Amino acid sequence: MGGAKLCPETPRQKMINMMYIVLTAMLALNVAEEVLLSFKVVDSSLQQTITNFELKNAQVYNAFEQAARENPQKVDEWNSKAKIVKEQSQKITNAINQLKIDLVQYSGHKKIDYKEGSYLKPDDAYIIDFNGDTLQLKKQDDLNTPSELMLTKNRAEKLKEDLGQYKDVLLAMVDERNLPLRNTIVQNLDTSDPKHDARSGKDPKTWETGNFENKPLIAIITLLSKMQIDVRNSESNVLNYLFGQIDASSFKFTGLEAKIIAKSNYVLEGGLYEAEIFLTAVDSTMSPEIFIGNQKMPVRNGKGIYRIKANSVGKKKISGIIKYPNPLGGFNSYPFDTEYEVARPSYSIAPTKMNVFYIGVPNPIDVSVAGVSMSNIELDMTNGTIEEVGDQLVVRPKDEDITGEKTLITVFANVDGKRQEMGSMKWRVKQVPDPVAKIGGKKGGVIRKEELLVEDGIAAVLEDFDFDLKFRVTSFEMHVIGAGGYTNKWTTQGNRFTNDQKAQIRRLTSGSDIYFRNITAKGDDGTTRELSTIALRVR
To answer: pLDDT tens digits, residue range 109-167?
Structure first.
């Protein structure tokens, strides 16, 4: 308070403070395009993982039905519980999916009609509604819709309540002595408020605000997909537990094998790789018969070997049946089906500064191939070279190529031990633009004599150029029109005014014209440029 009385804040300082606050808010709202794209890539991977869990869980439900048909007295109790798990899991998964649809519709969307020739771009984010329609997000960076719908309209509170009820249903299925499974369920479906650090000076956050406040729409969609995976993962754990309660002593196994099933084999830098590691029983003395369609698969160590070349893009379905010999001399049949998707190679080459390359300066670029680490990516370039500088790729073009006809960057990836071309992109190559000669920040016009006198010389300025490249004036001429219309000239080597030129400037009167011509400058790229004349009139 005392300081405020001694040094009151001026109106100018108040204005500066207000501008700073506005700028900070703008920066906070400006979500980088690369971040939005990363969320889109992650969500796409999560959707595939959700599908994988649903297929895996469907196989367990089919196993329950098969076992119930063969021995209903032994299996019905556990099959009934499995049906409750299936119903409740689908119910909350649909509720979360409805949240996604409502968020996209509330924010604004475009329905993609493929019959009318409307298609999605690789960068587009979208969801599929319950009718199978594709809804494209119009504003991936929308910060208002998630907060309004999830917090103001209390949808997050309802979601928290649903997750809690679903958690209670699953815990009721598991014996209280099975602490590892119960702890896993609690951890996967945790909706407790985050811990608050009182020293931070910030207000404590709830589960709702911590997850849904001031986050872009695409991030919320990705978060909801992650919650759906948590639901399907918990469903899978409980199903396996319930199936294990069925007395399977009639089957004898000779060994155990370790298995790893990852949530996703595609993880972004800074993300989390998570996998289930467990033991599966095998019988080396008995081999199953495995059919896909009518074709019998080769079997090695009790496992069917299925290989097929991916000759076309799109979703591919696999269905078949496993016939396993039972102790009574017959076969138990276990149908299965799954699908996978074949996609064209996806790559990206992006300049980090401009959309062209400039001769004489290092041009940084970012290169990525979906699902491939940088250590397995190779680049070829015509009309220049690409080198690693620290942790960055830098392009150094050779010759000017205004039309981009002879400058090509091709991306290769090592996939399954083979070098595969992913695609190529043409680039334009330009010379660094000429700098602008300035005195006191002016390249011409009216100047006060006092302003001119405080300047030491001429600067060469690259306007609107993002690269760290400098030009320095190496020579110039100063022309002053004297009495009788005669022009006096002084020549300088370097960029600074001479003593004679300074003396002449002091003699100038109001209305005098002074010109700086034949200005040359040399850049860090080794080129010498002729700069435009500076024409000034003394006020």
So the answer is: 777 776 665 666 666 677 788 887 878 788 888 888 888 898 999 999 999 999 999 99
Instruction: Return the higher-pLDDT residue of 225 and 278.
Output: 225
What's the pLDDT tens digit per position in 468-482?
A: 889 999 999 999 987
With a CB cutoff of 8 Å and minimum separation 6, the contacts of 19 are none
Per-residue tokens: 414: 């090592």
Say how far apart CA 534 and CA 461 lie, in whole Å. Answer: 13
Q: How far apart are the first and last CA of the chain?
A: 47
Q: d(Cα 61, Cα 358) in Å, to the nearest integer?
A: 61
CA 261 to each of CA 106, 275, 288: distance values in angstroms, whole numbers, following the listed order: 37, 5, 22
Reading the block at residue 92, the tokens are: 């909350």
Rounded mean pLDDT, 473-496: 88
Which is nearest to 378 in space by CA: 400, 342, 401, 349?
Answer: 349
State how beta strands 347-351 and 314-325 pair: unpaired
pLDDT band of residue 422 (cuts 50, 70, 90) is confident
Q: What are phi and psi of 487, to 5 degrees?
A: -105, 125
Q: What is the mean pLDDT of residues 366-390?
A: 88
Using a 10 angstrom Cβ sphere, with 0-12 exposed, 13-18 middle and 19 or more buried, the burial of residue 41 is buried
Structure tokens at 456: 């030491």
Percent share of the chain, pLDDT over 90: 33
CATH C-level class of 436-538: mainly beta
Q: Report the amino acid identity of residue 519.
A: I
> Per-domain residue ranges for the chain?
25-197+204-265, 286-344, 345-430, 436-538
Q: Over pLDDT 70: what percentage of the chain?
A: 78
pTM of full prediction above 0.85 = no
Alpha carbons within 13 angstroms on the beta-carbon side of residue 135 total: 23
Those residues whose C-beta lies under 8 Å from the C-beta of residue 282, and which sit 6 or more positions away, are: 253, 254, 255, 256, 257, 301, 302
Cβ atoms within 10 Å, residue 114: 9
Q: How far are the Cα atoms of 111, 134, 153, 312, 505 from residue 114, in angstroms, in the given order?
A: 10, 9, 34, 20, 72
Please give the angle made by the CA atoms of 331, 334 and 337, to the nearest 5 degrees. 150
DSSP result, 357-413 = EETTS-EEEEEEETTB-GGGEEEEESSEEEEEETTEEEEEE-S-BTT-SS-EEEEEE
361: tokens are: 């300066």
Per-residue pLDDT of 89-114, as tens digits, reads 999 999 999 998 889 888 887 777 76
Torsion angles phi and psi, residue 135, rounded to 5:
-110, 115
DSSP-based three-state secondary structure for 78: helix
H or E stretch at 487: strand 487-493
**Residue among 478, 476, 473 at smallest CA distance from 500:** 478
Superfamily (CATH) of domain 345-430: Immunoglobulins (2.60.40.10)
Name the pLDDT band for 305 (thresholds 50, 70, 90).
confident
